[in-house]
TrEMBL record:
Keywords: 4Fe-4S, Iron, Iron-sulfur, Metal-binding, S-adenosyl-L-methionine. The gene is thiH. This is 2-iminoacetate synthase ThiH. Residues 357-367 have a biased composition (Basic and acidic residues). It comes from Anaerobaca lacustris. InterPro entries: Aldolase_TIM (IPR013785), BATS_dom (IPR010722), rSAM (IPR007197), rSAM_sf (IPR058240), ThiH (IPR012726), ThiH/NoCL/HydG-like (IPR034428). Residues 343-352 have a biased composition (Polar residues).
Amino acid sequence: MPRPTAHAVRSMVQTHTDNSIGDILAKRHLDADRDRWRQRLRDVTTRDVEAVLATRPGSYRLDKLLALVSPAAEACLEEMARQSQTLTRQRFGRTIKLYAPLYLSSFCVNRCRYCGFNVENRFERTRLTIDEALADAERIAREGFRDILLVSSEDRTFITSDYLAELAARLRERFSFIGIEIYQMSAGEYRRLFEAGIEGVTLYQETYDRQEYARQHPGGPKADYDLRLRGPDDMAQAGMREIGLGVLLGLADWRIETLALGEHASYLIRRYWRSHVSFSFPRLRPACGVPRDEFPHLLTDRNLVQMMLALRLCFADAGLVLSTREAAPFRDHVVALGPTRISAGSRTNPGGYSQADRGEGQFEVSDRRSPREVADMLARHGLEPVWKDWDRAFLDTNRP
């Protein structure tokens, strides 16, 4: 089979209209029939990667991202790391934002095969009342955090928009930034939460591969691939300042998932310039009722580093988020190369900050160091840990 010319590849990845992200992914064959992309990735040579690295870093093209996530680029990781570090310093300085997740509920109606909160798992589930959530939040604040992420499974009957709006209103005095990572909501619900003080939403597509998405989501509201894909549009239209994207790394080929992520981010940046896009990199972790041997696409540390560097070199201003899913030695190694926000001292069981052994966690935390220990690690790398995002006065003058 003859190798396609560079012009043919570029035509394939650049000829498009600005339709919905679903249309774009379908036209690119990034949501199905991925064999053609595997061939494109195999066709990239080291010389192709070096040509990309000789251009100015920070701007996105799909063919550029294709080269940077290819197997051939593994020989160029040192140069990619050097450019990523330089670009990150230029755009973000030496600061790294610190945040803590606050889990609110482990009740769920979904049957996601990779999640410890799967409705079919049998364990003692937990919900936090507003007062219990505030008690955990107070412990997080005492550690120094002013950036908090509210996390919940799909528990709409308890974690309602009323609940979240009331909690956010009571947290605003203690936290300069409140984000959420919960079930998908409507644009109207996101708007209400934004007005209550929630500034950012992270919603993982989990995988952009339709067939694998259907296999991993056999039941529950989350099983609708197309509805899930529209979530970030609804967040942006509601005015959210931060939109977090990501896939659950391990469900499908990470190289092709990164290409789909790049297309999704580019689409959002073109349409919603007021919102800031960030990427998270959750790798599958051991969890209640989740056998890891069912996931053939687990990626190595080296793969994860390549993915982060490739996205940084294509998206100069995007946030890169690294959580405590990753082990301490790995986080120490990569923290200076591109991440802009990391979690610390995390508990993934609702109420876990007040009662460490309360209920089951969503997954096992890997980096178990205290927030202070993580901050000290950053300082040893010449980085400045930032506990607070933006000032309250800025929020009040820019809120509708």
